[in-house]
Amino acid sequence: MADPTPTRAGTRTSGMAARSGVMFDTAVASTPASAREMLAGGVAGVLAKTAVASLGRVKLLRRTGGEPGGVGAVRTLVGIYRREGVAGLYRGNGANALRVFPSKALHFAAYERYRGWLLAATAAPSSSAVDLLAGSAAGGTALLATYPLDLARARLASGDGACTSVHGVLRAAYAEGGGVRGLYRGACPALARALPRAGIKFGAYEWLKRRLPEGYDGRADAQLACGVAAAQLASTATYPLGVVRRRMQLGLATGGVLQGIRAIAREEGVRRLYAGLGIAYVKAVPAAAIGLVAYDQMKLL
């Protein structure tokens, strides 16, 4: 019969593991809630971006002519895998992660802060209205904090102008717009989409979670289904605003948001306002859903 008495090595190992666990719990408990929320949000954003990184690579190659025209997304993925292996599907994802982490950290942490303030101010239990308002405010905060970088990425991706670096694009935009205003060109339509999109996404997600059948509450797969539905609703409802935003960023549209929507619908047809929506369903919707669920799971940790 085996001796049940633990060895010295086993005792020492279990003791070290216990002390490590206590130290970890102590460190987490002593960390401000806002810092924990930012960490959870940043990690969730990176996980979401990584989950769809291969689709982002396909989109980039098709935009830049790296793949011949008419080749489907699946064939492009297979071609990348054959030429470069699994690593090729995630090439450039490290740089994306560095960009996404601070943006999503701010986004989710701001949502928690606004939600807490609204609940305290209204002295009411959580509701869809609170989630919608907090989500909208958080989306606007994150967008304004990172908008100049988004402007630079849009111009670089389009190949517009002689600038080939983020710094160069920002300098040119600053000069063209007569100062800081140039760095926020197109910010109004961006806010017009970001506010309702983030609000609908968070509001619908929390509303759906509260209506999950008994036994499904807290399950990641059920939360993912709620996230997909919420993200799809938010994307569909606000997609035309995104089309106008990109055109204004590139200097292809002037005037207000509603004027831009009417002009596109009149000159190019209503369908043009939803051009590329299918790609958003394939890439943006899963990323948003994964981000929401990953944030919930990170909060449990």
How is the secondary structure organized here?
Elements: H1 8-30, H2 33-51, H3 53-64, H4 73-84, H5 86-89, H6 93-122, H7 128-158, H8 166-176, H9 180-183, H10 187-210, H11 220-249, H12 257-268, H13 277-300
Helix pairs in contact: 2-6, 2-13, 6-7, 7-8, 7-10, 10-11, 11-12, 11-13
Family: Belongs to the mitochondrial carrier (TC 2.A.29) family.
Subcellular location: Membrane
GO molecular function: coenzyme A transmembrane transporter activity
Protein model, in words:
This protein is an all-alpha fold. It folds into 3 domains: 33-63 and 72-91 and 285-300, no CATH class; 102-185, no CATH class; 189-268, no CATH class. Helix content is 78%, strand content 0%. The protein is built from 13 helices and no strands. The relative contact order is 0.10. The mean pLDDT is 81.
Low-confidence sequence ranges: none
Structure class: mainly alpha
Oligomeric grouping of the chains:
single chain
Q: Domain count, please report it.
A: 3
Amino-to-carboxy terminus distance: 40 Å
Overall strand count? 0
- The overall pLDDT, averaged over residues, is 81
| Largest beta-sheet details | none
Fraction in beta strands = under 5%
Order of helices and strands: HHHHHHHHHHHHH
